[in-house]
Amino acid sequence: MLETILSYPDLSLFLALMVLGYTCGTIAEKRHYKSIIKREQELIKLMVVNAEGRFAEGAVKTSFLVNGSMVVSNDYFKRLLAILRNIFGGRVKAYESLIDRARREAILRMKEEARAKGAHMIVNLRLETSTIGRSANKKNRIGSIETLAYGTAVVMNRP
Amino acid sequence: MKFTPKHIEGNVNVSKTHPLAELGWLVGGLMLLVLIFYLLLGVSTDIAVAKIPVNAEVWLGEYFIGGMDALESDPLQKLLQPLLDNLPADSPLREYNFYVQMVENEQINALALPGGHIVMFSGLLEQAESENEVAMVLAHELGHFAHRDHLRRLGRGLGLTVAAIILFGEDSAASDLASKFFLVGESHYSREQESAADRFGLELLVASYGHAGGATDFFARVGKDAGSRVPYLLASHPHPDDRVRQLQELISANGYQIDAVTPLGEDLLEDLPISEAASCEEPVSGADE
Prior knowledge:
The complex is a heterodimer.
Chain A: H1 2-7, H2 9-42, E1 47-48, E2 60-73, H3 76-88, H4 93-116, E3 121-132, E4 144-156
Parallel strand pairs in A: 1-3
Antiparallel strand pairs in A: 2-4, 3-4
Helix pairs in contact in A: 2-3, 2-4
Chain B: H1 19-49, H2 54-65, E1 70-72, H3 74-85, E2 99-103, E3 110-113, E4 117-121, H4 122-127, H5 131-146, H6 149-168, H7 173-185, H8 191-209, H9 217-226, H10 240-254, H11 266-270, H12 277-280
Parallel strand pairs in B: 2-4
Antiparallel strand pairs in B: 1-2, 3-4
Helix pairs in contact in B: 1-6, 5-8, 6-7, 8-10, 9-10
């Protein structure tokens, strides 16, 4: 057993990274989604729209920029799935959840900031996504993406 | 417009497929592609090898043998010469410039490389007891050349590696893996190829020595150590015992005589590296004797 592992170091390393990527990636993703759903429920009352806000005169007390961002990394298992997808084409399902998590987490962080500052709603929401590090496209490197959510937090004049 | 907060169940942005199921489909699809490619490659190399000119093969051979640690062994060359002289006049083998080299290695094995190189591992020579035995092995390798088995083997391994490089890029880990896996997996001849080379070898041995003495000795000795017959059902090589039986049938069918064998020349033995370990090693499982 040990002999086999030692005689194929490349293959063993590859398999070990695969298993590590799959287990850690799955656990991290499950926990993250749990937390996302819980916090989304908590913050559901805080309105976020991507429309430009138009308010009656005197309705707005103050407004300011809020933003939230998340950087999420790929793992070896997802990377393998994506490489295989490159051969056959089709939806790169492995990456869908990564992007989804980054987007929702970024919006949540933005909302948390807005709530802390006493905002009643966020208008003009925008999302940006970028890859971190050029290594994302190079061989044997694991890339990450960043999603940035920003918008205008509005505090209303409410009695 | 009134804002009504509502939590949306489910997620359209993420596919429901389980990642392991997807892996299964993708790997399965890839395997299928490789299999189809492998079968096509088998058919196309069979067609192509017959058309590869000998000089192209010689170039390939020089390319290939560059990495081998070979000693030129004159006594072996002397052994090969009478075999070559007794080839039929119209044999395609006459176009080759054969030469035999001995490589210091404990394996009991000999190889036919493209371009007319025959490599004999010293482990085989240490086991051999007569000149006829070694000549039979050489004649067997000549049989592989005559049927161009060595090219067929190389052709498939190369084709698969090239395919991996096209798919994954030249210096990716996947291509390295593929080249290792396929070149190792491909390094055997099929049973039919081995049997055909045995027949060719026997005829040449008889043409050269006038009798079939020593033809079966080598396989008989190997067979004693080869053990159970069961794994050989799946192995790429015929079981040594089956080879001995096939050779004996041929000998009696053709009425070849079996005379006394010639002992190994002193000059041949001198070249051998002294290594006692070689004879204790487990011999030939999947070797190209």
